[in-house]
Amino acid sequence: MSDMQKELIIVLDFGGQYNQLIARRVRECSVYAEVHPYTLSIDKIREMNPKGIIFTGGPNSVYGDEAILCSPEIFELGIPILGICYGSQLMAHMLGGRVETAPVSEYGHTEVKVDKRDDLLFHGVSKETIVWMSHTDYIAQVPAGFEITAHSEVCPVAAMSDPARKFYATQYHPEVVHSKEGQQMLRNFVYEVCGCQGDWKMDSFVKTTIEQLREKIGDGKVLCALSGGVDSSVAAVLLSRAVGKQLTCVFVDHGLLRKDEGDEVEAVFGPEGPYELNFIRVNAQQRYYEKLKGVTEPEEKRKIIGEEFIRVFEEEARKIGAVDFLVQGTIYPDVIESGLGKSAVIKSHHNVGGLPSVVDFKEIVEPLRLLFKDEVRNAGRELGIPEYLVARQPFPGPGLGIRIIGEVTEEKVRIVQEADAIYRKEIQKAGIDNSLGQYFAALSNMRSVGVMGDFRTYDYAVVLRAVNTSDFMTADAAQLPWDLLAKVTNRIVNEVKGVNRVLYDCTGKPPATIELE
Q1: How far is 214 from 200, CA to CA, in rounded Å?
Q2: Three-class SS string for 138-201?
Q3: Is 442:511 a contact under the CB 8 Å cutoff?
């Protein structure tokens, strides 16, 4: 394990929707955490030498035909374990307790009463606290050695522990923000139960990563995929610090960027910009429009964009000579959402699940692969990247290709670019741009009848999206002022040809994703 990872918490994924959020919450405690599939071998766990293990939730029943179980040896390693939801039931089931279908299912905000205030998991936690429940099974009988530490009105074992073996379990989800004191419980687990000191710091990540990149790349040539977004910008500066002129940054303008964004990226990273980078801009707009013609399925669009992305880089690599490494700005939520073990694939990302099987490089390097979005921003600040770049609005690799429902055409791209530019401008004028996690305009595939002057129209509906989020893994729809929405709507329908209706997306994540596709 590298110097920057002296302490490690392993999150074993049993198919839960909050697996990455658990790791994120542990990292907020300044303790490094990684998500791995539940099939991770005992030998590998021993080799990784974690300070603790967390079992995630999952959709199965521990006693059913579809049950997924871990190796019984995991309980003999002497490593502290915290089971969450399915993970708590798994612990009860495998250690001799009994799990059954609950007489009453629980879902949502639930009041839990703490029965043992001196339990390490509940230090500093109120006697009665609100948590987030989501279960149809429950622990009917705790295993030998365990005691019940919390209960709710209909769940007799909301939490249990075996302090002698350092096994702890919660039926609820402490990792979600709806569990009001959940972060305190996780902090108690990593510090008081696992004995962590908290050595996960961004300055050590930057220093160690630059050293690792130098060692890995040596005198090799490097090609960096630069989009101008936060992730690729931080990756580019990291590589520039590590290998200097061995790095060539290629910016692919696939015609799916926000209005005027191609020129803005070139102004920042090109020859006139503040960074000493070998910068190449490839105008590939028509090439992408041709590839996407007639394609409507979101995953297929993502994979086409991802594969074409790599092919353009292969071509550029040949022009500049042999290239050993391709650098991408992949971050941890991209990796998790693209599928991990048995967990559900939410969506493939253009620089993860969208990669073709054969590329013309020795290796793909992803220096930010283990970071969450806010950690990437902090790394950027540590590298001295200007705040206006570090705090830039997130933009997906597939660009407007996934903000246009259905087939992507040049005309649709124009519509969404114009609508999005108006929306962003009005958000900024209202002075609320820095308070929102992400906001953008997308184009639905719905056309409806309208009236403009004395004429009937049959045009598209634009969808506005704005969310509040701290980590981009969960999000709530922002409650924008009605007069602001009215102003944006009026401008879009009057100024953007082809639009006669504007909708606002009020859905959170989950159940939706932040992007529309």
Answers
A1: 22
A2: EEEECCCCCEEEEEECCCCCCEEEECCCCEEEECCCCCCCCCCCHHHHHHHHHHHHCCCCCCCC
A3: no
Catalytic residue, chosen from 36, 93, 135, 173, is 173
Find the mean pLDDT for residues 454-470: 89
123 is catalytic: no
Active-site option among 29, 70, 85, 155: 85
83: helix, strand or coil: strand
pTM over 0.70: no
CB 294 within 8 A of CB 407: yes
Query: In the predicted model, is pLDDT for residue 155 greater than 70?
Result: yes
70 is catalytic: no
> Helix crossing, 373-382 with 202-217: angle to 10°?
80
End-to-end CA distance of the chain: 37
d(CA 70, CA 38): 6
Is residue 85 part of the annotated active site? The answer reads yes
Q: What is the pLDDT of residue 123?
A: 96
- Measured CA to CA in angstroms, residue 187 lies from 29, 30, 101, 163, 226 at distances of 6, 10, 31, 16, 37
- Which residues does residue 12 pair with via DSSP β-bridges, in sequence order? 36, 55
What does the alpha-carbon distance between residue 166 and residue 120 come to, in Å, rounded to a whole number?
10
Give yes or no for residue 100 having a pLDDT over 80: yes
Q: How many CA atoms lie within 13 A of 488 on its CB side?
A: 30
* 53 phi/psi in degrees, rounded to 5: -130, 140
Annotated catalytic residue: which of 175, 375, 418, 426? 175
Check pLDDT > 80 for residue 344.
no
pLDDT category at 321 given cuts 50, 70, 90 is confident
Structure tokens at 510: 């989950």
